[in-house]
Design brief:
The chain has 286 residues and is of the alpha/beta class. It contains nine helices and twelve strands.
Length: 286
Amino acid sequence: MRADAGVCDRASVDNFLELNRANWDERAAAHADSPDYAFEKYVKDPSFLSDVIRFDLPLLGDVAGLRGVHLQCHIGTDTLSLARLGATMSGLDFSGESLAQARRLAQLTGTSIQYVQSEVYKAKEVLPAGEFDFVFTGVGALCWLPSIEQWAEVVSELLAPGGRLFIREGHPMLWAVDEARTDGVFVGYPYFETAEPLVDEDDGTYVATDSQFTQNVTASWNHGIGETVTALIRHGLRVTGLVEHDSVPWEAMPGQMTKITDSEWQLSDRPQRLAHTYTLQAIKDS
């Protein structure tokens, strides 16, 4: 369950990076072993793509021959999928255990992907600045970063002139909804970025697993659409597309959603009331 930062140990919140890394490190193997991430399908079928990338394809377009970097790549299923579409991929994540699983999947599938361990804000210390044709970020990534401004600066630093940012993310309006309420849609958390994180304690995870966890506290932040767009513009990117979607690739509000495709969920009651996710694209002109 979520709790206000003020009721948690202040030192733990200040060390949000270590707090979150411990959480993701502990869950990486369980995610890789879960049928929800479908490692065996990638190994058996060279054409298999992640649900996220399949959803993205109409807007993503052709990435064959492009050099791309996937920020906050976790265990690499989306990174591998982009490589299967013909991109030369790098993946970056702060979790060493997640990258171990990503490298294992790349090896099992015979795919050449460069994986590097770093927090996002230090990406230019481990990746070549100004040399990527596109930066990709998937669903559920930005909420782990305290400053959207610093993230936008990193994106700009990594992209070559004419390079493109592509991101599909949970909509900040969805993140602001209290998912514990099952009797309606209630805004319970900040829409805008705040100095203090939201602190969550949850001994489970979002995939099917029998694993038991002990690293259960995380710190996260929301970032409004306007804040995100403005940060990108401020760092030299031109927004070329912003599409809001009425579905999300997990049951974000348990008990209130209907599965409408093999991988997408939608609010059961009047889904048009709530933007679930968004896709944003931007180009670095110079």
